[in-house]
């Protein structure tokens, strides 16, 4: 089940013109921003499939940048995101890749950097404003979308996973699926956690305050 | 919880409740949120839809490209001054569907139902039927839950994405959802709702997504318009006792498989259909220039 809630179908409330190419694109950009944690200095965005063919008409480029500015899909400033990003001095470049074959038609790869910190994320807009995240920093992640998900970027140190799991238990949420991936021992790692219950922002904020936790993003 | 239209109709029949009520209870169960919370969120969506309709029929809406805007108002003026060939409720619905999509094309605020490109059909039908059926505010919110329940099954068993399944997955789904919800609002049974959706969706099978210049304007606005009219006709047919020969779940499955067979040029890439006509190509060139790009963009 890719869609879980009636509000995935009747919703979201959004700035037009396309739920997949505008609202979904904004959500992918915002997930990247949340996981990166701060406003990026440099961004490289690659669009594939239908995104690459029709981004101009749908404002896909504008919407992803709006998401990177932490605007949600109903933010009335969404159409002005490119000017706002320029005023803020964010260096943004777009690559339109019509050749690479992608599994899902609306796919975007976003590379963010500030100083030496980098993050790369691949998101897919599956229709009606619903998105999936398929890759973070080179790790393939499998999120079915059937449950709310938490993405937690953290230092690979003992106890991090237990602390996060303990906090989720304190909120009386049940973990239905979890995976942890890292590039190498002791480096940055990513927890992907799905729960049976909705994830509230309060819990996400508390998790991000735990030791060794860098950033937390909620995919509802 | 329901996964098919058959299960949805059975749940409603067994418990002697409306489809909208099945959807509300399912939402409470899966999200753990209260009835009041869920109902008020849907009420807010209804308000957004109403504001978009009102803007579209009263204000001078024009999209940035100039390809769409102002047609909803033309229909309202026609309704006021002439005797329409079809019917006033039908054309009022059509006008309100267009109003929504014109506001959407102008980067206004809308509620996706199930998508932004197909956002006109459901509110068009709902606000068009308002003058005929005089629903309470609660019944109008319920209309959205019913439409959502049918859309939920389509989204999970087929697709609501034009890039994945063509326009049949977007305006086709919206038309089926609106037809089913119109039946409930008019006092029909859950089974009649399912037949209305099957009849409406079956009529949309094979519909491609071919936006001129890649913009969610032409033919999208007019496809929502005719979608709203089809939804009301399909609802009337089901209310008259007409059944779909092919069960609703099988029509949804057929829609999914047709979408899988559809070439990529006809799935929201603006490479085929109306987008690839002489006029379509000329409009694209006129709006975006030959291949003039901002310095930010590199194509490969």
Automatic annotation (TrEMBL), chain A:
Pfam families named in the record: ACT (PF01842), SDH_beta (PF03315)
GO molecular function: L-serine ammonia-lyase activity
Keyword list, A-Z: 4Fe-4S, Gluconeogenesis, Iron, Iron-sulfur, Lyase, Metal-binding
Cofactor(s) required, per the database record: [4Fe-4S] cluster
InterPro entries to which the protein is assigned, alphabetical: ACT-like_dom_sf, ACT_dom, ASB_dom_sf, Fe-S_L-Ser, Fe-S_L-Ser_bsu, Ser_deHydtase_bsu
Keyword Ligase: no
Superkingdom of origin organism: Bacteria
The ACT domain, residue ranges: 149-220
Pathway(s) served: Carbohydrate biosynthesis; gluconeogenesis
UniProt xrefs under PROSITE patterns: ACT
Keyword Ligase set for record: no
Catalytic activity entry: L-serine = pyruvate + NH4(+)
The family this protein is said to belong to: Belongs to the iron-sulfur dependent L-serine dehydratase family.
Database matches in NCBIfam families: sda_beta
Protein's recorded name: L-serine deaminase
Automatic annotation (TrEMBL), chain B:
Key words of the record: 4Fe-4S, Gluconeogenesis, Iron, Iron-sulfur, Lyase, Metal-binding
Top EC class for this record: lyase
Pathway linked to the protein: Carbohydrate biosynthesis; gluconeogenesis
Domain Serine dehydratase-like alpha subunit, first and last residues per copy: 15-275
Cofactor section: [4Fe-4S] cluster
InterPro entries: Fe-S_L-Ser, Ser_deHydtase-like_asu, Ser_deHydtase_asu
Keyword flag Transferase: no
Name of protein: L-serine dehydratase
Organism: Sporolactobacillus kofuensis
């Amino acid at each position: 089940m890719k869609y879980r809630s009636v509000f995935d179908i009747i919703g979201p409330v959004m700035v037009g013109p396309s739920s997949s190419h505008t609202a979904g694109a904004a959500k992918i950009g915002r997930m990247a921003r949340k996981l990166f944690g701060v406003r990026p200095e440099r961004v490289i965005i690659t669009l594939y499939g239908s995104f690459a063919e029709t981004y101009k008409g749908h404002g896909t480029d504008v919407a992803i940048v709006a998401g990177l500015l932490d605007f949600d899909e109903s933010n009335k400033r969404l159409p002005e995101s490119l000017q706002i990003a320029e005023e803020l001095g964010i260096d943004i470049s777009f690559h339109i890749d019509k050749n690479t074959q992608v599994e899902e038609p609306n796919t975007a790869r976003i590379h963010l950097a500030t100083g030496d910190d980098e993050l790369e994320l691949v998101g897919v807009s599956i229709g009606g404003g619903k998105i999936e995240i398929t890759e973070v920093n080179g790790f393939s992640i499998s999120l079915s979308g059937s449950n709310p998900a938490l993405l937690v970027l953290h230092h690979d140190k003992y106890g991090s996973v237990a602390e996060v799991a303990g906090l989720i238990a304190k909120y009386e949420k049940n973990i239905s699926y979890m995976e942890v991936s890292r590039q190498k021992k002791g480096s940055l790692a990513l927890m992907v956690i799905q729960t049976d219950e909705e994830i509230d922002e309060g819990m996400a904020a508390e998790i991000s305050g735990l030791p060794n936790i860098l950033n937390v993003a909620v995919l509802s | 919880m329901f996964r098919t239209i058959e299960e949805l109709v059975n749940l409603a029949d067994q418990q002697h409740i409306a489809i909208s009520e099945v959807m509300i209870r399912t939402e409470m169960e899966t999200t753990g949120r209260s009835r009041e919370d869920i109902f008020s969120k849907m009420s807010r969506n209804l308000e957004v839809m109403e504001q978009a309709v009102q803007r579209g029929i009263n204000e001078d809406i024009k999209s940035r490209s100039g390809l769409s805007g102002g047609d909803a108002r033309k229909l309202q003026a026609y309704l006021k001054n002439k005797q329409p060939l079809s019917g006033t409720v039908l054309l009022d619905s059509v006008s309100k569907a267009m109003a929504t999509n014109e506001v959407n094309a102008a980067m206004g605020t809308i509620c996706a139902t199930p998508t932004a490109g197909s956002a006109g059909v459901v509110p068009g039908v709902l606000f068009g039927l308002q003058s005929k059926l005089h629903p309470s505010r609660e019944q109008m919110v319920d209309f959205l839950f019913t439409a959502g329940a049918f859309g939920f099954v389509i989204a999970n068993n087929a697709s609501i994405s034009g890039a994945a399944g063509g326009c049949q997955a977007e305006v086709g789904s919206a038309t089926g959802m609106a037809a089913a919800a119109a039946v409930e609002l008019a006092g029909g049974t859950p089974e009649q709702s399912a037949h209305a959706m099957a009849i409406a969706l079956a009529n949309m099978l094979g519909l491609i997504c071919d936006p001129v210049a890649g913009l969610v304007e032409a033919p999208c606005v007019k496809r929502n318009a005719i979608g709203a009219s089809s939804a009301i006709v399909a609802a009337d047919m089901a209310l008259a006792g007409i059944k779909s020969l092919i069960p609703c779940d099988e029509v949804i499955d057929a829609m999914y498989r047709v979408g899988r067979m559809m070439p990529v040029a006809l799935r929201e890439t603006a490479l085929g259909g109306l987008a690839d006509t002489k006029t379509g190509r000329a409009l694209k060139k006129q709006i975006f220039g030959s291949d003039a790009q901002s310095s930010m963009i590199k194509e490969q």
